Amino acid sequence: MTGLEKMIKVIEADAQANADKILAEAREESDRIISEAKEEAKQCAAKIAEKPASEIKVIMDRAESGARLVKRQMILDAKQKIINDIIQKAKRKLAGLSDKEYFDMILQMVRKYAYSQAGVIKFSKADLDRLPKDFEKSLELVLKDKENASLIVSDESVKIDGGFILVYGDIEENCSFDALFSDAKDELQDKLNAFLFE
């Protein structure tokens, strides 16, 4: 199991525990709201006992329906918070990898996103400062299967959170962590939702 797979397993376990706790709190709060709504509806019903039973039932049904709606919304909000927390935690884990794990992952990303032409790869100042000495040689090896693909590491840093920017003339391919997570946010949310809540 690779370091990245281990990290994903730890994130999944933490996420499940966090999700269970937040959902339990949301359900407890929503149950309390439903209970209060029912009690309030009963008090209202007692005040209007002179009214026909059909009107009382409508009032009770409306109160219970409103309480169920609040409960659903609270659970949806809790799920969204959990998913956003997991995505942020995953980004922090990526940025906190050891230099070897981090640049091994960067090389995998380069293999995926590099064009079949000559270009420049730009890193953040922090990544430039910790770039392995043999990184350009590793880039060559990673790109050897892509015809005409080559990358030169730029000495100029860019303001990104991690990852890199590929530059091919006037074309830039933003492979920063923020950009990649943003592009994949809907898909990540669907996968996390299926994993955590179904």
Describe this protein's structure.
- This protein is α+β, with helices and mostly antiparallel strands.
- The chain has two domains: 3-96; 99-179, hypothetical protein PF0899 fold (2-Layer Sandwich), CATH 3.30.2320.
- 69% of the residues lie in helices and 11% in strands.
- The chain has seven helices and four strands.
- The protein has helices at 3-47, 53-95, 99-113, 125-129, 135-143, 177-183, 185-197; strands spanning 118-122, 150-153, 163-168, 171-176.
- The chain has a four-stranded mixed sheet.
- The longest helix is centred in the first third of the chain and has 45 residues, at 3-47.
- It starts with a helix and ends with a helix.
- The model has no long low-confidence stretch (mean pLDDT 81).
